[in-house]
Design a protein that fits this description.
389 residues; mainly alpha; 434 Repressor (Amino-terminal Domain); Serine Threonine Protein Phosphatase 5, Tetratricopeptide repeat; 3 domains; 21 helices; 69% helix; disordered N terminus; HTH cro/C1-type domain-containing protein; DNA binding; Lambda_DNA-bd_dom_sf
Length: 389
C-alpha cells in the first residue's frame, strides 16, 4: 500500500508529481497546461472527470491511470458531505419559473432571520451546518414574493460554500441564478454583490478571463474609478469586484494587470478599515499565484501583525491562511507551512478538515516534511488523511 492509497484524485496527482521530483510548473509544461490548472487539480478545485485528460496526466507522471483513480471516484467534493451537496443541487435546479404558483407566501422577516443565521455559519466557517440550512432556504428563495436582495443572498451563500467544497459547477449555477435576479432590479449595489460571487465561481471553474471581464465591467458600473466618486458602499463594492478581477488576472499570469487592479482597490478603501485588510490579503494571494512565493510570505508577515487583521471574518482569515501555507511550501519552508496549517485549524477547523483545498495542502505539507510535527500528524488523522505520510 502506498501513501497515495485512499486519497482523492487531485491529491494522488500531487503525490506522484512529488515522487517524480517535478515542480508544478514543470509538470504543467509537460501537459501543455498552466501552473494554475495543475494547482487547482491538486487542490480538488478542478476535477479530472474526462478519461482523455486523466490518461494524459498519468502519462506525464509515468504511471498507469488506474493508480490515480484507485477506489475513490474523482467527482466527490468531500467524503462526508456529498449527500448534502446533492440535496442543495436538487433544490437549486428546481427552476423558479416552472414551480406552481400556489406555493404559500414566505414571510420576508422570518426568511431574513434564517438567512442571517446561515450567513453567520458561513462567516464562522461552519460549512456542515450551512449545508443543512441551504436546501430549505433555496426552496423558499424560488418564491417571487421575496425581495430580490434576500434571494440574491441565498444564491450567494450557496455559491460561496460550493466553491469551498470544490463543487465548481454548482457554484457557477448558484452565482448565475443570483446574478439573474440582481440584474432584474435597478439596484447597482445588489448587482455588484451578485457579480462578485459570479466572478469567484468563474475563477473556481478555471474561467479566469470570463471572471476578469465580468468583474471589471461590474466594477465600472457600480462606481467610476476616480478619486472621491461614489458613496462608501459603492466604493467598497467596487473594491470587492476589483479584487476578484485582480485574482483572476494573477491566476492567468498577468502580473502587471493584477498589480494595477490591487492598487485601484487600495485607493478605494480607508487605510485603517477592514476593506483595506482584505485588499492587502488579496495582494498576498495574488503574489503567490504569480509564483513570487518569498515576497508573498514577506507581505503576509507584515499583514498579520497589524491591529486591523482580526477585523476580517474568521472564514476569510482561515481561507487566506491556506493560501499562505501553500506559499510557504512553494518557498521551501514546510515547517512554516505546518505552523500555518495548525493556526488555520485552531481558527476554523473545517477549512482544513472539510475543504478539498485544505486537505490537499495538508497532504503536501506532510509529503514534503522529512519529520512531520506530531501535532500536524494528529491534525491529518482528524482530517481523515491517515496515510499521507
Amino acid at each position: 500500500m502506498t501513501v497515495a492509497d485512499g486519497l482523492p484524485v487531485g491529491r494522488r496527482v500531487a503525490y506522484w508529481r512529488q515522487r517524480r521530483t517535478m515542480s508544478q510548473q514543470v509538470f504543467a509544461d509537460r501537459l501543455g497546461k498552466s501552473k494554475s490548472w495543475v494547482d487547482k487539480v491538486e487542490r480538488g478545485v478542478r476535477r479530472l472527470d474526462r478519461w482523455s485528460v486523466l490518461r494524459e496526466v498519468a502519462a506525464a507522471l509515468d504511471i498507469d491511470p488506474d493508480m490515480l483513480l484507485g477506489d475513490a471516484p474523482p467527482d466527490r467534493p468531500t467524503d462526508g458531505l456529498s449527500a448534502d451537496v446533492e440535496t442543495i443541487q436538487a433544490a437549486l435546479t428546481r427552476h423558479p419559473g416552472l414551480l406552481p404558483s400556489t406555493v404559500a407566501p414566505i414571510d420576508p422577516r422570518r426568511y431574513r432571520n434564517r438567512l442571517d443565521h446561515a450567513d453567520a455559519a458561513y462567516q464562522h466557517a461552519r460549512y456542515p451546518m450551512l449545508l443543512q440550512l441551504l436546501p430549505d432556504l433555496l426552496d423558499d428563495a424560488h418564491g417571487r414574493d421575496l425581495p430580490a436582495a434576500l434571494r440574491v443572498q441565498a444564491y450567494r451563500l450557496t455559491a460561496q460554500v460550493a466553491v469551498k467544497l470544490g463543487a465548481a459547477e454548482l457554484a457557477w449555477l448558484a452565482a448565475d441564478r443570483g446574478l439573474a435576479v440582481a440584474t432584474g432590479t435597478d439596484d447597482s449595489l445588489l448587482e455588484a454583490v451578485a457579480a462578485t460571487s459570479f466572478g469567484q465561481a468563474l475563477r473556481a471553474a478555471g474561467r479566469h478571463r470570463a471572471a476578469f471581464e465580468t468583474t471589471i465591467a461590474a466594477a465600472h458600473q457600480v462606481a467610476p474609478l476616480t478619486d472621491g466618486s461614489g458613496t462608501q458602499a459603492e466604493r467598497s463594492a467596487c473594491a470587492a469586484l476589483l479584487l476578484q478581477a485582480a485574482l483572476a488576472a494573477a491566476e492567468h499570469g498577468d502580473a502587471s494587470t493584477a498589480r494595477d487592479l490591487l492598487d485601484d482597490a487600495t485607493a478605494l478603501t480607508e487605510p485603517d478599515g477592514p476593506a483595506r485588510v482584505a485588499v492587502d490579503a488579496a495582494r498576498v494571494t495574488a503574489t503567490a499565484a504569480l509564483g513570487d512565493h518569498r515576497t508573498a510570505v514577506d507581505l503576509h508577515q507584515m499583514l498579520t501583525v497589524r491591529s486591523q487583521w482580526p477585523a476580517l471574518p474568521i472564514e476569510h482569515r482561515a481561507a487566506y491562511l491556506l493560501d499562505v501555507a501553500g506559499a510557504y511550501l512553494e518557498a521551501g519552508n514546510a515547517p512554516a507551512a505546518s505552523r500555518v496549517l495548525r493556526a488555520t485549524d485552531r481558527l476554523a477547523p473545517p477549512e482544513v478538515r472539510v475543504r478539498p483545498a485544505g486537505q490537499a495542502i495538508l497532504t503536501e505539507t506532510l509529503t514534503r516534511s522529512p519529520a512531520p510535527d506530531p501535532h500536524l500528524l494528529a491534525l491529518a488523522e482528524a482530517a481523515g488523511v491517515r496515510s499521507a505520510w
